[in-house]
Amino acid sequence: MNKYEIMFIVKSDMEESTINQTVDTLKKVLTDNGAKMIEEKKLGQKDLAYEIKKYKTGYYFLFIVEAETKAIDEFNRIVGINESVLRHLVVKVED
Fold first, then answer.
1. Which of 13, 20, 21, 67 lies at 20 to 30 Å from 40 by C-alpha?
2. Diameter of the chain by CA atoms?
3. Nearest Cα to 47, choosing from 29, 35, 59?
4. Distance in angstroms (rounded) separating the CA atoms of residues 17 and 7
């Protein structure tokens, strides 16, 4: 298994319960596909460097996981469909 850092930004105009539900859904996608959660950080609401879909702020989250390519591919697919997520980035960490 490879180690990945996954950062994503969730829309800032949603209720906290909806934001938490979105994060839980994305975490479940990873774990259901065999990924092991190493670390999970809620980085809070921050200003975006530039406007994305008319949003100037967003809630930032960071997952550090050990996963196979299958789990990462499924995560990318689900995030692409999920309208609550403004942006995401998956980086493979080389040890």
1. 13
2. 38
3. 59
4. 20
Residues facing residue 4 across a β-bridge: 65, 92
Ordered alpha helix ranges (H), 45-85: 69-81
Tracing tokens 């990462």 back to the chain, one arrives at 72
Alpha-carbon torsion, ordered 49, 44, 4, 40, to 10 deg:
180
Q: What's the predicted TM-score (pTM) here? A: 0.92
Backbone angles phi, psi at 89, to 5 degrees: -145, 130
- Report pLDDT digits (tens) over 31-88: 999 999 999 999 999 999 999 999 999 999 999 999 999 999 999 999 999 999 999 9
* Strand bridging mode 2-11 / 36-52: unpaired
Between the CA of residue 19 and those of 67, 68, 70, 79, what are the distances in Å? 24, 26, 25, 14
- Nearest by Cα to 50 from 23, 75, 87, 17: 87
